[in-house]
Amino acid sequence: MPQTIRLTVAQAIARWLAAQFIQIEGAEVRICGGGFGIFGHGNVPCLGEALYPLRDALPLYRGQNEQSMGFAAAAYAKYHLRRRFMFCTASAGPGTANLLTAAALAHANRLPMLMLCGDTFLTRLPDPVLQQLEHFGNPTLGVNDAFKAVSRYWDRITHPAQILQSLPAALATMLDPADCGPAFIGLPQDLQGWAWDYPVDFFARRLHRIRRQSPDALEIAEAAALLGQARRPLIIAGGGVQYSGAVEALTTFAEVHGIPVVETIAGRANLLATHPLNIGPLGVTGSDSANAVAKEADVILAVGTRLQDFTTGSWTVFAPDARLIGLNVGRHDAAKHQSLAVVGDARLGLEVLSEALLDHSAPAEWVTKAQAHRKTWDAYVAANVAHGNRPNSYAQAIGVVNALAHPRDRIVTAAGGLPAEVTANWRTLGIGTVDVEFGFSCMGYEIAGGWGARIAQSEAEPDRDTVVLVGDGSYLLMNSDIYSSVLTQKKLIVLVLDNGGFAVINKLQGNTGQPGFNNLIADCPTVPDPFAVDFEAHARAMGALAETVAGPAELGAAFQRAKAAPKTSVIVMQVDPHEGWTTQGHAWWEIGTPQVSASDRVREKHAEVEAGRAAQRAGL
């Protein structure tokens, strides 16, 4: 008979998580770096009791909001290139419901995150319980079922023995390169405390690895034949390049075969800004250089990208007859828009594709032309980030930070206007150091994601800084992890750029011919007396150091003070909501505009938007 140990379900889950390891750069570390938790009646009596004895092995960070806990967990996984994850635990009801947005973010970005959430009682004896949503015709349906749409793995445990299958299956999903994403496990409140005789072997220390799938030889041969015929080849480098550990392989491939490289938002730091084959960021928030080269390319090798509309300009940035090769570990992404699909690991795929190409190299004049485009773009960025006698802008603030940051400092931003401005204007100083959350374009990620990234960074690069760039709109939406960072001594540098509301959406509103309405605080008809928030005082109230600067001329010294400070520092600077936006580098982006309107201006802008559709690769 196998040896057993009697444990509650919650105790068994915690003990099993603590026993799972992975090898990273020669060191064996726990795959689960710990968790973020807010306890309530649905998880504190049992799961809380189970986690307490393992508080050193699985450090538990107490969040201020379940949604921000999920953002922090996503940023932690992104920093560790999906090789490690954090769990989030929330109580039954609204605590769990608050995790939905974060789960969607992790799902869109293909990031591992484990959610251990309370659920209603299996016995149903006390029904309806506090915070239960009753569905009269289906008593099994509840809030947790909503996570089926935003999870890669979903389960509700109804018997203690089920975790013997469910936990390994959830971990396998989170470590799978193609299916990676959030895993949700619902834990009924009574079942968490039920005991069972578990096999001792289930809790034995186990070392895992992430699978590297070799691409099919015939797919490689076909891709090599197509790429070998190209006169104007181009590589799109996505975030999957970093997750595969393929940065060196990508760089070598581009250099050996003389192919220009453009980056997606997620792949923004695959190459240093100074690399001669780095032609710039591609797409709607990209660069004139990358978009010009993409428009002329005849064969495009898309590596580790899901080809989101901001990358493809809603499929207008490529020539109508350009051929695509999709090298991706996920079949779904590799085959998009009738790409010649090469399904496999990015690093292995680039290596064998390079071998198949032998010494083939793209025409030198093509590379020279691409580099000339990049040189022109660099000159534009230099002028764009310079400050002088003009209104404060995002670009100026980015330029100041860029000039003073350490190459290994991590830059975090999301949503609003900052992703576009950072993508266009930030000159990459270190590989993998830029986290622009734009997979789900989620406001509120910035500070919470910065906290999660800093937790991860403090494990690997404790002497470096995590720098968060956030607008006033996102700050007001979710700022409590400034307090979290101070409490846990995970220092952040937070730059709050205040433009008086949702300025980038106000800009879009204006660009579609409409008057300012309900985006800038000053344009809200229900706000009779607009006033500015004292962000400095607010940050100080959460224990951070804080100061306000008048403009970029003062920002540099403030940033240096923040770098020298021992704890989280918040710097506030007002920027103009109308002037100073990056005006070049934008590709067409499909948006819905009114076909009928009483406004001549709206009708005019509708016609302009629709005119851009002529370049769209519809149906391909």
UniProtKB/TrEMBL annotation:
GO biological process assignments: inositol catabolic process; isoleucine biosynthetic process; L-valine biosynthetic process
Every Thiamine pyrophosphate enzyme central domain range: 220-352
Source superkingdom: Bacteria
CDD domains recorded: TPP_PYR_POX_like
Entries under InterPro entries matching the protein: DHS-like_NAD/FAD-binding_dom, Myo_inos_IolD, THDP-binding, Thiamin_PyroP_enz_cen_dom, Thiamin_PyroP_enz_TPP-bd_dom, TPP-bd_CS, TPP_enz, TPP_enzyme_TPP-bd
Pfam families with a match to the protein in the record: TPP_enzyme_C, TPP_enzyme_M, TPP_enzyme_N
EC number: 3.7.1.22
Record's keyword annotation contains Transferase: yes
Keyword tags: Hydrolase, Thiamine pyrophosphate, Transferase
One GO location term (cellular component): acetolactate synthase complex
Keyword Cell membrane: no
Family to which the UniProt record says this protein belongs: Belongs to the TPP enzyme family.
Name of the molecule in the record: 3D-(3,5/4)-trihydroxycyclohexane-1,2-dione acylhydrolase (Decyclizing)
Source organism of this protein record: Stagnihabitans tardus
